[in-house]
Amino acid sequence: MSLTTVEEAPKIRVLSVFGTRPEAAKMCPLVLELQNHPRFESMVCVTAQHREMLDQVLHIFGVVPDYDLDIMKPNQTLSGITTRILEKIEPVLRESKPDLVLVHGDTTTSFAVALAAFYQQIPVGHVEAGLRTYNMYSPFPEEMNRVLTGRLATLHFAPTSLNRANLVRENILEKIFITGNTVLDAFKTTVRENYSFKNTILQKLDLNKGRYILMTAHRRENIGPPLEAICHAVLRLVKEFDDIKILYPVHPNPAIHDPVHKMLGHQARIYLLDPLELTDLHNLMAKCHLVLTDSGGLQEEGPSFKKPVLVLRTETERPEAVEAGCVKVIGVKEDAIVEEVRAVLTQEETYQSFLKNPNPYGDGSASRKIINAILGWKEPLI
Ligand code: UD1
Ligand code: UDP
Asked: Which of 2, 37, 62, 130 is most exposed, with minimal Cβ within 10 Å?
């Protein structure tokens, strides 16, 4: 019996499926590596759970989807997203016949696509597997999306050893690969010395003068009173510190956009921006003084730019950066937010304490590690 040679073996057909801005930011670097690898036939399907924010990222990486489910609707519901994806992905899976479907993280796209692939008995690879808070309502619905996607997946690409341990605790014992986070791979495409911003408001600001706070808030569990408390805290902070400026690219979800504009619009030194292109966001992070956010991605990116990240949530599924001292979870209560930001703004020692340790989410080689793991699974004899 002779072994198959590399030249003889059919290429491995990988369908990467994603739908939102953060998934695109973290999957596009992997898609580029798959496209350039001779052993893979790379296909991309976007659900377009997000539309403009997804397209912004695709454009930056030059990724052109083979399939676009175009499911986004204004004010969409979770069951609406799930059912539209389940219906529309089925013929795509039948036509594209992938050996492996790759999904990312914890969105409703990830869960619905993993379920649809399971229905057709197509193996699923889960990128950014194993993050947990163990609170099914926080982050909501992401914690459960991630647990269910993990249950449906065959290959688990865990950013850290802690993520791997979380999976093992759930009796997922095989085919877990520690890879780091692919978001660090994205910096090769996005971060530039002497970068010129595309956003016209950023173009006009002198980012070397004063202290800029980059802020984002969009999580479903923060909609309503927590978001109002966050806005009140920001108003108090700009009043107390006359050298700070808030740069807040606002998520287009009307449940976020409308109250934020109502509370923070037309306030001195608060700049409400349209969602920034990923290149603008990353290069702005390199220049700002501090990051105030409820975003998962910003918690992973901030430490690479050596900026303190204060998290506007009550818990995080990304404790590695907290343990490394790069990130602090400060909750969503007005007084606590003001106190924590004040401490970082006024105490140099506190500020510096965030910058001591390296980013715990890897070194920018996650995509390559994922590809090697897929090769080892699919072609152990080649
Ligand atoms: C989704 C993910 C969340 C992720 C976030 C990143 C789920 C359930 N939620 O939440 O995990 O952290 O993306 O941003 O998967 N909209 C637009 N244009 C866009 C994108 C969104 O107008 O390009 C508006 C639409 O009105 C849409 C609404 O935002 O209905 C909410 O979008 P949705 O994907 O349902 O929720 P996110 O809060 O963005
Ligand atoms: N991001 C961006 N423009 C913005 C805000 C965020 O490109 O105006 C990027 C950010 O750098 C990160 C990703 O979007 O890579 C995070 O997305 P988001 O905060 O929407 O989602 P989460 O990470 O919380 O799921």
From this structure: 2
Q: What residues are paired with 249 via a beta bridge? A: 273
Q: Which of 188, 212, 207 is nearest to 196 (CA)?
A: 207
Residues 302 and 227 in one domain: yes
At 57, which helix (H) or strand (E)? Answer: helix 52-61
What is the pLDDT confidence band of residue 9, given thresholds at 50, 70 and 90? Answer: confident
Domain check: are 116 and 228 in the same one?
A: no
**Whole-prediction pTM:** 0.97
3-state secondary structure of 175: coil
Which two three-digit tokens encode residue 22?
């953060």
Residues 291 and 246 in one domain: yes
How many domains does the chain contain in total? 2
In this prediction, residues 200-205 reach a mean pLDDT of 97
User: CA 225 → CA 15, 228, 229, 254, distances in Å?
Assistant: 40, 5, 6, 15
H helical segments located in 77-224: 78-96, 108-119, 142-152, 161-169, 183-190, 200-204
DSSP state of 5: P
User: Which residues have any ligand 1 atom within 6 Å of their CB?
Assistant: 20-22, 49-53, 74-76, 78, 81, 106-108, 141-142, 218, 220, 252-254
Give 167-170's long-range contacts (Cβ < 8 A, gap of 24+): 167/129, 167/130
Distances from the Cα of 57 to the Cα of 35, 116, 182, 261, 262, angstroms: 17, 25, 14, 24, 28
